[in-house]
Design a protein that fits this description.
This protein is mainly alpha-helical. The chain has one domain. The chain has a two-stranded antiparallel sheet. Strands 3-4 form a two-stranded antiparallel sheet. Strand 1 and strand 2 form a beta hairpin. The two termini are 43 Å apart.
Amino acid sequence: MAIKQPKQETEQKPGKQFAIAGIDGTFFILIMVLLTFGLIMLFSASYPNAQHFKDNSFFYISKQLVFAVLGLIAMAVLSFVNYRILKILAIPFFALSMVLLVLVLILPSTDSIKRWIYVAGQQFQPSEFMKLGIILMFALLIERFASHENISLLTMGRVRQYSSKMKTFRYGVLPFALVLGAVCVLMMLQPHLSGTILMFSIGVVMMLVGGTKLRWFIVLGITGIVGVGGVIWVKGIAYMVKRFEGWINPFSDPRGDTMQTMQSLLTIGSGGLFGRGLGQSTQKFMYLPEPQNDFIFAVVCEELGLVGAAMVIILFVLFIWRGFTIAVKAPDKFGMMVAVGITAQIGFQALLNIAVVTNTIPNTGIALPFFSYGGTALFMTLAQMGIVLNISRQSRT
């Protein structure tokens, strides 16, 4: 008589991944390395200006450390709070961000550029809140218009696509174009060209991932060009022509409009392969304007050389890779789109900043995430990292 053999276990065990307290360990380490690296470089780049203008070498770094601690607390809390609660808060948060963008245009300002709101001696940029606001709004819309069946399924060796409202103009383009158009118009009226480009880029990436057909982006592109052209016409064509000429020839006006770009290129070039050494920059001593803000990457190049600059770029590349990996493993469409949006925001912002500092694109004024001085920006960045970490905590194995 044949003896039945016990059935072999056929279920595949989920692949193991590096985790710290349930969150994606690799992503968490990348965040902490970027934050630590950024704070060190901020102090190195800022202390000459802090001593000269504020009579306190620790002025910028001490304020940044406060927001770093607050941001880390927010990151820790949000990493435990279920990200799905953001579905309820998406519309109110976006509406509040829109109100702030309108207020910044109405409230009195110290100059013609209206990007900051001053409260009790402190200032903050409403655009920092809108970055998260537009991500949450787009994620909510995409989840409603793109069902789970929109995800490609590998069946019988063939990829099968299911229909989705996101493929139509009515649902996949029009609502997003209205939201994005309103935000970009308010951003351009500040004027904040780099912020406008960043918002537009985030929106385009989220729509592409969400399922909008490529052909509709031609319509969006034409609309965007017409809109930017209209704002340029209102603000003055001469201003934009001047910016373009300064980009083509950054040494044309060394004491005026092109001084910052020219000094940035000199700062980068003086670093060589291995740099002068940490803290040994000479350009930050009143030569390079605002080295602690938009042009901090130039100081990195001078002090740490091409090797240090490459390290910063590699860290951001790894950050983007891990962020999209978390998005792929998200348990639902909303979580996936939020992770995609936040990762794209940091990636595009780093790309634009490095491109401006190296004069690859005209000077538009945009901060380098984790590195540039700015309390609101750092706090919001770390808070968003907490959201992504929470998505990774609930990710599919």
